[in-house]
Amino acid sequence: MKSNYKPLGNYIKQIKKKNTDGSVSVLKGIRINKEFMESVANIQGTDLSRYRVVEKYQFAYNPMHVGRDEILPISVLLEDEPIIVSPAYVVFEILDHNELDPEYLMMWCRRSEFDRNVWFTTDSSVRGGFSWESLCELELPIPSIEKQREIVAEYNTIVNRIKLNETLNQKLEDTAQALYKHWFVDKKNTDNENILLSDLVFQSKETIHPAKCKFDILEHYSIPNYDEKGLPSFEKTKTIRSHKYKVVSNSILLSKLNPRFPRVWNIYGIANENAVCSTEFLVFVPKTIDLFGFIYFVLKSNESIEYLTSRATGTSNSHQRIRPSEILDMPIPCFSKEEVLSFSLKTLWMLKRIRLNLKEIVKLNELKDLILSKMSKVETKTVEA
Predict the structure, then answer these.
(1) Cα–Cα dist 33/30, whole Å
(2) Whether 308 contacts 259, CB under 8 Å
(3) Distance (Å, rounded) from C-alpha 44 to C-alpha 216?
(4) Beta strands in 51-118 (DSSP E)
(5) Given pLDDT bands bounded at 50, 70 and 90, which one contains residue 203?
(6) What is residue 383's predicted lDDT score, i.e. its pLDDT?
(7) Contact of 129 with 63, CB cutoff 8 Å
(8) What is the pLDDT of residues 107-145, one digit of tens each?
(9) What is the C-alpha to C-alpha distance for residues 116 and 35, in angstroms, rounded to an integer?
(10) Where are the domains of the chain?
(11) Of 24, 114, 328, 331, which residue is least crowded by CB atoms under 10 Å?
(12) How many other C-beta atoms can be found within 10 angstroms of the C-beta atom of residue 42?
């Protein structure tokens, strides 16, 4: 480690407070993106008095499986109300917030170098655990508290902008889905006729094999990326082994995996030349761009989800798939051309705005990563901790 780095153990202490009186009932886990999440565990009949309490500005981390996942699931609680976490978690707090800011430390924990160092120091057990002692031995630069808070403020400005864009996108999506339901679900189709999805789209099957690709970096639309943030990742071509579908302009990506959990990606507008997607997605291109909005929200509708789920096959609920032919043969209620075009025109600007917001989020995430990467170069205090 660099000589101006300080051991984290000088600034933190472990907390072992248990929920002995049962006063805290909100149980949370930690995602791999280092944020607290509502626990999916069934706690019916569970004795919650054994669980560890986490209070505002305290940290918790899951010490297990770090060696396997190469990431330390760690987060800091910024809400006022306390939560509880698994008894297996480690909880700690900073001794003096005027020496080390909790949000600054959390930023350090989000760095890829932090996870790499943690992974290097995991134990040799099957689970690859990460001990409290190992955490205390990690070192980091500690600039003045004023500089720490300046860095945190700069970082939070970007984070808040990302959250604003995400909120705007959700509102636009909800508005358009409500409009679709009002126009095409609640309204009875008096013609009693259906058309097929294949009448409205064609499937693009152009493939790219990374080994023969001219790009060093690929914009990768994958299942994990969709599930995490709905954003593509930018990956070195040489790290991608299997062939992919090329993502074409003005297309809609639909996952054939587990249709009861719909994954529909809006690629409205010009797609980047280096954009690819997992072969778990089907790339649909509307036969006319005027139908883009209608087709997109058809695929996201509850009716389509139910139809596709009923035709999925597989040995387990987590690995069910639907054949492309079944998707293309999906019946769609036939409405007048005027209604469909009118709806598409009303929603296309929303989809365009959503797409532009997502592109901005990608750029903002790059700025976030840049701030995190520069943390190792900040001027540190000369006084020894």
Answers:
(1) 8
(2) yes
(3) 50
(4) 52-54, 59-61, 74-76, 83-85, 90-94
(5) very high
(6) 41
(7) yes
(8) 999 999 999 989 888 765 545 678 899 999 999 999 999
(9) 19
(10) 5-142, 173-335
(11) 331
(12) 7
344 near 335, Cβ under 8 Å? no
Strand-pairing partners, residue 382, are none
Best CA proximity match to 98, nearest among 144, 154, 150, 56:
144
Extract the tokens encoding 140: 């980091």
In CATH, 5-142 is 3.90.220.20:
yes
Query: Which residue spans within 101-248 are E strands per DSSP?
Result: 139-141, 194-196, 201-204, 207-208, 217-221, 233-236, 244-246
What the block records as the tokens of 28 is 């949370």
Tokens of 148: 């720490």
pLDDT (tens digit per residue) in 17-41: 999 999 998 999 998 889 999 987 7
Any idea what DSSP says for residue 169?
H
Topology alike, domains 5-142 and 173-335: yes
In angstroms, rounded to a whole number, what is the distance separating the alpha carbons of residues 69 and 139? 22
Q: Could you tell me which of 126, 190, 180 has the C-alpha nearest to residue 293?
A: 180
Beta bridge partners of 218: 235
Q: How many residues in the chain?
A: 385
Q: What pLDDT does residue 384 have? A: 42
In the structure encoding, which two tokens stand for residue 234, read together?
């930018």
CATH 3.40.50.2300 assigned to domain 173-335? The reply is no
Q: pLDDT category, 270, cuts 50, 70, 90?
A: confident
- DSSP for 233-275 reads EEEEGGG--S-EEEPPTTEEEEE-B-TTS--EEEE-SPPPTTE
